[in-house]
Structure formats: structure tokens, C-alpha cells
């Protein structure tokens, strides 16, 4: 069977941009008539057929899919979201669609951004991350019938597709690693309450500490920034001997390293740290940061594929229900979780 030809193949053979080829196939007057004829002749020769997802969106308003980035946005951006933007953009361009990125300055602004996207027809499908209890963004999208995929759990899992990381397992992995040498002074640094992934992380960590017979961990719910991690750790280091830190994200762990340096302490001899999500640079801290990984490129590909299939179905519920995928994190044990003389 002859392999199906996409816009990308046509564009490469003709030396044109994918967007130009897509417009030419739609008889867009912005494309020169000669170029339109050349593109359409090649498309006929290859028996090119538009992707169903592209056809579905072209019946909408924008031909765009949006990703809404939740705060905080900072210099240590989550590698999963960077991979998602790149991967989803590639898939969309291959079928002549575009990616739109929206970034909220604070969480209270996010529902308003989603409402604006819907009301002004800025995108015809969305990807949302950092879901929360009673998520107003999800309610809006469900009420308005806009196709969307969440990166995280919601209270309406039977009404939309989702991909999630098992953060409860991530919390358990952190406690197991730290328990080898720190059974009395474990401190959990997680994101604010109400964010589902952060709540799941704390739940898993606390449960694992109980299973292992450890003292109840101390818990701080803070923003996932390096400065917030530093501030939280500084208070602990001023009053606690040889604490261990379980951080939901490496940005917080980097802050712990900074707090230790400011206090004249060293990770290893004086404290231990376990991070999360394997940020770039985590292997180059001193000592290298122990953390967890979720194979970001694979997660981004999965999210993108789920979004594309959902668009192709026009946002309709499949006969066997919406897709739901749970990704298991794996430990990356380096050195920072171990007390060393």
C-alpha cells in the first residue's frame, strides 16, 4: 500500500513552507496562481487527501490549537511543556494548522484567558496543564463544547481525554530514596494546595513515610520557583540538623542548593535533596541531583497524539470512551539523596 502523503512531503518536494502549501490547496488568493497550480498538480499526482483533524478545524474559526501555560513561568521552565510545544507544533504544521501559546501571569487569570480564547475564536482546541480541584477552565470548555485535552486529572475524567503523570508514585519514590539515610527530618516542598498533581505528590509521600515507619514529614506548599525553594529551605536549615528535602520539581531543589550555600552548608554532609522532573542542569549540581524522570519527549508525543485524535473526532465522545493515560515516573538516583562524610 502506498504511504499516505502529507503536507510536509509536498512542501519539501516543492521547496515551500507547509503554510504556503496549505493555503495553495485552499485556493487562498494570497498565494500566486502559478504556485497554486504547481502545488495542486503535485497533490493530485500523489493523491493527497487532507487530514481529518485539519478538515474539522477548517470548519471552525481559526485553524489553531492553543496551549495555555500556567504560572509561574520562570527561567527553569518545565521541560515537559517545552517538549509539548515543539512536538505539538510539528504535528499541527504537518496538516496545515497552527499552534497558539497563551501564558497566564497568575492562576486567577487563567479562566479569563480561556473565556477570551472561546469568545474571540482564537483557537478551536486547547491543551491545559496543572489541573486543579473544581477547575473553572475545564468547566468553561465543557459548557461551550470546545475540544480539549488536560495534562493532569480532573473531576470530569469521563467527559474529556487526559494524560497524567502518577505524582503519588513520584512522592513515594522521593521518600524511598531519602529514607535510606534520613528517617526523622524529611521536609516536603510541594506546589500550592488545590493543584491536583501537587496534592497527589504530598499524598503519596506521606503514605510512603507511614508504610516505612518514618516520622510524619513536614510539609510546605509553595510556588514552584527557585526563590521559593530557597526561602523555605533557609528556614529549615536555620533550625534543623541534617534535614532531607523531597521537592515536587527540580526548580525547588535548586533553591535548596542555594539556601545551603548561603548557610555555609553542603548537600551530602549537611542535608539531602530529592528533586522532580529531571530539569536540564540537574546532573551538574554538586553533588548531582537525584530526581525522577518521565521521559519528557515520550509524554509530549503522547499528549500531541491524543490531541490530534480528539480533533479528528471533532471533540465527540468515542464509543469506548475518552482516552486516559497515566505515566509512571522512574527514579534517577545520583548522589544528592545520600548523606556523605
By DSSP, the count of extended strands is: 12
> Which second-level CATH architecture of the largest domain applies?
3-Layer(aba) Sandwich
Please summarize the sheet with the most strands: 6 strands, parallel
Rounded to the nearest angstrom, the distance between the terminal CA atoms is 64 Å
**CATH class descriptor of the largest domain:** Alpha Beta
User: Radius of gyration, rounded?
Assistant: 23 Å
Q: Enumerate the strands of the largest sheet in spatial order, edge to edge or round the barrel.
A: 2-1-3-4-5-11
Estimated share of beta-strand residues: 5-15%
Give me the number of helical elements: 12
Helix content: 40-55%
Poorly predicted sequence stretches spanning 5 or more consecutive residues: none
In CATH, the topology of the largest domain is named: Rossmann fold
Overall shape: it is elongated
**How many separate domains?**
3
Structural class: alpha/beta
User: How would you state the average pLDDT, rounded?
Assistant: 90
The name of the CATH superfamily of the largest domain reads: Response regulator
Order of helices and strands: HHHHEHEHEHEEHEHEHEHEEHEE
Amino acid at each position: 500500500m502506498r504511504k499516505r502523503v502529507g503536507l510536509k512531503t509536498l512542501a519539501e518536494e516543492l521547496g515551500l513552507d507547509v503554510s504556503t502549501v496549505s493555503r495553495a490547496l485552499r485556493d487562498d488568493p494570497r498565494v500566486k496562481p502559478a504556485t497554486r497550480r504547481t502545488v495542486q498538480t503535485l497533490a493530485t499526482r500523489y493523491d493527497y487527501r487532507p487530514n481529518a483533524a485539519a478538515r474539522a478545524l477548517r470548519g471552525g474559526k481559526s485553524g489553531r490549537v492553543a496551549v495555555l501555560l500556567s504560572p509561574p513561568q520562570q527561567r527553569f521552565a518545565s521541560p515537559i511543556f517545552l517538549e509539548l510545544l515543539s512536538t505539538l507544533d510539528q504535528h499541527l504544521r504537518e496538516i496545515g494548522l497552527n499552534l497558539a501559546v497563551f501564558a497566564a501571569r497568575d492562576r486567577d487569570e487563567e479562566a479569563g484567558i480561556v473565556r477570551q480564547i472561546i469568545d474571540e475564536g482564537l483557537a478551536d482546541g486547547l491543551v491545559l496543564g496543572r489541573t486543579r480541584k473544581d477547575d473553572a477552565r475545564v468547566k468553561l470548555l465543557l459548557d461551550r463544547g470546545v475540544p480539549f485535552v488536560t495534562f493532569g486529572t480532573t473531576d470530569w475524567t469521563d467527559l474529556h481525554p487526559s494524560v497524567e503523570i502518577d505524582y503519588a508514585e513520584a512522592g513515594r519514590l522521593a521518600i524511598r530514596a531519602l529514607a535510606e539515610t534520613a528517617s526523622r527530618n524529611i521536609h516536603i516542598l510541594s506546589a500550592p494546595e488545590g493543584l491536583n498533581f501537587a496534592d497527589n505528590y504530598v499524598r503519596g509521600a506521606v503514605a510512603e513515610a507511614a508504610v516505612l515507619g518514618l516520622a510524619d514529614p513536614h510539609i510546605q506548599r509553595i510556588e514552584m520557583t527557585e526563590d521559593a525553594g530557597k526561602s523555605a529551605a533557609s528556614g529549615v536549615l536555620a533550625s534543623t540538623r541534617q534535614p532531607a528535602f523531597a521537592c515536587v520539581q527540580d526548580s525547588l531543589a535548586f533553591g535548596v542548593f542555594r539556601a545551603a550555600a548561603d548557610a555555609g552548608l553542603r548537600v551530602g554532609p549537611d542535608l539531602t535533596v530529592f528533586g522532580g522532573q529531571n530539569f536540564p542542569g540537574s546532573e551538574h549540581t554538586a553533588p548531582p541531583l537525584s530526581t525522577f524522570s518521565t521521559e519528557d519527549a515520550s509524554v509530549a508525543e503522547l499528549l500531541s497524539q491524543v490531541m490530534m485524535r480528539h480533533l479528528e473526532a471533532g471533540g465527540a465522545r468515542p464509543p469506548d470512551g475518552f482516552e486516559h493515560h497515566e505515566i509512571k515516573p522512574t527514579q534517577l538516583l545520583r548522589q544528592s539523596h545520600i548523606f556523605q562524610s
